[in-house]
Design goal:
382 residues, alpha/beta, TIM Barrel, globular, binds phosphoenolpyruvate, binds manganese (II) ion
Length: 382
């Protein structure tokens, strides 16, 4: 399949995705150790089966046709230390899904942001703590949150594999598919089998790595899984069309999901032109990442009311266009943390535990699900 309007390959050797520039990759200090871990990973058992990736592809096809709703959620960053405690998050997601299923009278596809969400893109590669400059935390697959663990360590990729495997054991029987941001291309490449990414059923490309000429878009175009791309408020309709042409040239229902994260103030203005550009994709709302701010006492936080307002805006846009509001992508936990303000939380200092972005706690998550249930129940007015 040829890519429309892309003549960049003319007069040059055709490149594979491996030659393309890769944004947001760790500066591993020990290339030999990295090579040995990647060689081990390339021989390891797949974490998920291609057949189960195909099963999710089918389910996402139902979402694309407006016959199902996606609920995707979990922490911003999983830590190895808390891997055994995912039960509460799974239960919360399942309660939300059950509520939505009942309200919408259509199936909810459950996709956890778990069992692999160990790598984070960052806006700066260093930070200053107590007057000292240290590498930023890039997720447990790369380095540790504590200051003495900030040097990237390739052996953490092997830990990521083992921890994902034990988390999947806990998830077995709970009816969830698994997903994470496919950020670390060496890790994903080493776990690719027969054209399938086998680290998770669904991978997504983050807002910072969706460059058309970059390695992430290149790698994702080479795999057969259902995939997603985050879109922030700077995305233009032509970017969305170009991404769809590259990642889903045949426009196969369920292949491509766009996860919009515009912010409550922008979603109603920015989203309509993007959805209209590729209405056949699955469109999902991430009401978290466009609504992050720092509280006066220094916590990275989000307001529950803004999160809810972005979800409402997302539904309004789809109602006006006559397209399907395909689902929600949330950062949440089953624990009683105090990381997002509102809906019962006023003091962030009580139990702020996130390794990265602020999550909705269990009560906030269920409140939000009740609100979304009401939106799903509202008849479409024509
Ligand atoms: C995330 O999902 O944690 C994230 C970094 O999101 P985005 O790529 O949308 O900024
Ligand atoms: Mn996040």
């Amino acid at each position: 399949m040829y890519v429309k309007d892309d003549r960049s390959h003319l007069g040059r050797r055709l490149t594979t995705w491996r030659d393309l520039p890769r944004a947001q990759q760790p500066a591993w200090p020990d290339p030999l150790e990295l090579r040995s871990v990647l060689s081990w990973l390339s021989r390891a058992d797949p974490l998920v089966s291609p057949a189960d990736c195909d099963a999710l592809f089918e389910r996402m096809g139902a979402v694309a046709r407006g016959e199902a709703f996606l609920l995707q959620g979990g922490p911003c960053a999983e830590t190895f230390a808390e891997a055994s405690a995912v039960g509460g998050t799974l239960r919360t997601l399942d309660q939300m899904a059950t509520l939505l299923e009942y309200a919408g009278a259509s199936p909810v596809v459950r996709v956890a942001r778990l069992a692999g969400q160990y790598a984070k893109p960052r806006s700066s590669s260093v930070e200053r703590i107590g007057g000292v400059e240290v590498p930023v935390y890039r997720g447990d697959a790369v380095n540790g949150v504590s200051l003495e663990d900030r040097l990237p360590d390739p052996r953490r990729l092997r830990m990521a594999y083992h921890t994902a495997s034990s988390t999947l054991d806990i998830m077995r029987g709970s009816g969830f598919f698994t997903s994470h941001e496919g950020l670390l291309l060496d890790y994903e490449d080493a776990l690719t089998r027969g054209g399938y990414a086998t680290s998770a059923h669904l991978l997504w490309i983050g807002e910072r790595t969706r460059d058309l000429g970059g390695g992430h878009v290149g790698y994702f175009s080479s795999i057969r899984n259902p995939i997603a791309v985050k879109l922030g408020p700077t995305a233009r309709p032509s970017d969305v069309v170009a991404l769809a042409d590259r990642l889903d040239p045949a426009r196969t229902a369920g292949r491509l999901t766009f996860i919009s994260r515009m912010g409550a103030r922008k979603v109603r203005d920015v989203l309509p032109a993007l959805v209209s550009a590729v209405p056949e994709a699955v469109w999902v709302c991430d009401p978290m990442h466009g609504n992050t701010f720092t509280s006066p006492d220094g916590y990275k936080t989000r307001s529950y009311d803004e999160v809810l307002d972005e979800v409402r805006g997302f539904f309004e846009v789809h109602r006006a266009l006559g397209t399907h509001a395909g689902g929600l992508h949330l950062e949440l936990t089953g624990d009683d943390v105090t990381e997002c303000l509102g809906a019962g939380v006023t003091d962030l200092s009580l139990r702020y535990q996130s390794a990265c972005d602020p999550r909705l706690n269990r009560a906030q998550s269920l409140d939000l699900a009740f609100e979304v249930a009401a939106l799903l129940r509202t008849p479409v007015l024509v």
